[in-house]
């Protein structure tokens, strides 16, 4: 079942890359304009994994910049129970149910 989903996502991603579209720019401004997230993985928006997930979620065009994958929001500055064992990032782009978050940059919780 998982192999079929991966094959379908790859097919969709390949089809999406053959359509000419303008790139989606990942914003890198301060986290005052975004949300602090805890992401399991950070990758380039043009990577095969990010492209496949983008196609699966219907993201138009090419994703540029860094994206977070498997993310959950941190509230309250990440203090107490809101700690992050993976990569803490500031994301200013679209959030696709935490599976894919566009426009992320590394972020320190130590203000």
Automatic annotation (TrEMBL):
Task: Please state the span of the N-terminal signal peptide per the UniProt entry.
Answer: 1-21
As for subcellular location, the record says:
Secreted, Cell wall
Key words, A-Z: Cell wall, Disulfide bond, Secreted, Signal
One GO cellular component from the entry?
fungal-type cell wall
Sample GO molecular function, one term: structural constituent of cell wall
Instruction: Give the superkingdom in one word.
Output: Eukaryota
Q: Which family does it belong to?
A: Belongs to the fungal hydrophobin family.
Name of the protein this chain belongs to? Hydrophobin
For this protein's source organism, the top of the classification is: Eukaryota, Fungi, Dikarya, Basidiomycota, Agaricomycotina
């Amino acid at each position: 079942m998982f192999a079929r989903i991966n094959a379908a996502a790859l097919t969709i991603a390949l089809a999406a890359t053959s359509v000419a579209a303008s790139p989606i720019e990942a914003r890198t401004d301060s986290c005052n304009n975004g949300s602090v997230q805890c992401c399991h993985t950070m990758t380039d928006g043009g990577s095969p994994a990010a492209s496949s997930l983008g196609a699966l979620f219907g993201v138009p065009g090419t994703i540029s910049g860094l994206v977070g994958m498997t993310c959950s929001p941190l509230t309250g500055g990440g203090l107490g129970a809101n700690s992050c064992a993976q990569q803490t990032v500031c994301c200013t782009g679209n959030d696709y149910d935490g599976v894919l978050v566009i426009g992320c940059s590394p972020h320190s919780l130590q203000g």
